[in-house]
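Slide 14.
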Amino acid sequence: MSKPTIAFCGMTHLGLNSAIAVADMGFPVVCFDPNAQLIATLNDSVMPVQEPGLDEMLAKNADRIRFTADLGDLVGCDVAYIAPDVPTDERGQSDLSPIRAIIDLVAANLNDAAILVVLCQVPPGFTRGLAFPADRLYYQVETLVFGCAIERARHPERYIIGCAEPDKPLPAAFVAVLAAAECPILPMRYESAELAKISINMCLVASVSVANTMAELCENIGADWSEIVPALKLDRRIGQYSYLKPGLGIAGGNLERDLTSVCNMAAEHGSDAGVVHAWISNSKHRKDWALRTLHEQLFQDNPNAELGVLGLTYKEDTHSIKNSPSLALLANIGQCSLKAYDPAIDFDPAWHPNGQNTTTPLAACQGVDAVAIMTPWGVFKDLAPAVIKNAMRGDLVLDPYAVLDGTTCAAAGLRRITLGKPAQ
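Slide 15: predicted structure.
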């Protein structure tokens, strides 16, 4: 028996990774986007997003994947996923108008038996409000995490499925796709599934906030957060997969959106979201860590110091700069001169008037008074501290994510400052 044909509509980060992962599970996949120029680029095997393993998995499954801007190619599809990324503004508010537009476009061109699945994240109540037959309409919680998107799409922990009637069996074509991942399938009502995604992100934010709060205490009382983390990982109430790595606030857009959604829903219904407001405040405080540290350690004594910035994206292994701590630093650092390097994107002069792009990480260190490693790209781990010190004029390295080895930095004569530890 032939496998059902699966469509993914919206070739942004979510749609591309999800489509290629399903093709790798053995299904014929139609990748639709109304942007003909984007489709032409994809047909030339040029990806608009960066993810480890994405290009290789595409090449491996190229014979199962068709990129198209022709709505007529959707008619023969058994399951159609609505999968564009949902844009958010600077306040974490979602713009759902592009999602509604592509749903209207796709729904009008499906056959009468096709299943429509909303994969992109939407607020509770969205799916039930769509004008589409309820027995063929579902919501699926996406698993997207920038930097490991293809791995999570190919090997999800579980599928959370929103349904009009959770007690009824799922359609055979839809089950075929879900069963291929060999993970638990959790049907529930639309609103529960939509809120489940937000609930998951609330738990992640709680872990991040604990890590940031306690790591900052470590920096000031002589404790070392990296020594504490293993004890927490071994506690079954917390677990080995907890988000316990301190960072520079919450970034990327998705978690911020969910914090905003919960605050808005709480205000609308008279519920208390004080803890969520506290998480937002903690995130803003931690995002300023690099700026505060540079002023204390460098600029108050040397206002004309030059800075090298390694990393511009909000996290490693992605091209996204949404709410990037690095760009937040550049926006508030003042008029100092700086050199910047990122393996995924080039420095944009609009980010800082006195900045320049460099083509290697070592070039960004050349002649500067301090280096700030703002994104923990793997390539930065290959930089020898002694080589960095020889390239620099000064000796200060901000290494919030502990990319470099502290002992080796000290031996090289670098003053390395990292999150969760007292300054060396």
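Speaker note: The mean pLDDT is 91.
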